[in-house]
Amino acid sequence: MPARKKHAKPPRKSDPSFRPKSYWPPGSRAAEVEIVRIAISSSSRDAIVLSARRSDAGRIQYRMVHEDAFGRTRHRIAVKPASSAAPLTLGELIHMLEGACYSGPCPDEGDDEKFGSVIWGTLQLSLEHGIDHADDYLFHLRISSAHYPGLEDHYLDRVSDWCLANCIEDDDCKKIVRLRTGRYPRKRVTLS
Question: How many whole angstroms separate alpha carbon 51 and alpha carbon 12?
Fold first, then answer.
């Protein structure tokens, strides 16, 4: 009988050098456009939105806010760079998102490092103060962009890695994460 091979779905690849030509469609007069939306799967249906605005000097200025379900700003979020001459590359955008932090200190001293980051802090806060297991947070954040097609896949991989790293309950948690993402080794059976 032939040996069984384990086949795992390879991680998705995204090109960090990808740069959109523009954030605005040709002929658009819109002052501000949405670049990234981080939808939070919670009862409040909040979202974190990164938008771009054209400055009078021709630069692109970035603004990130945490909005409630009605589009009202709840929190401002600090991003770097605050502006650029051209649209960001995917790698630069990921770096911006990874470094984005809520403006102002956390209510509890010392929590800034742990919970201040927009993506990882939001997940960690939900995990530590929620009632769900790590595998339940796999789709807690949906990070999407019409301008960066590889962004959602990039963060699906990163968030699944975060979930795997935070599965402290038992091995079932890790199996669930792998099954939900298609990253679980599957057994191949050959019939003779």
Answer: 26
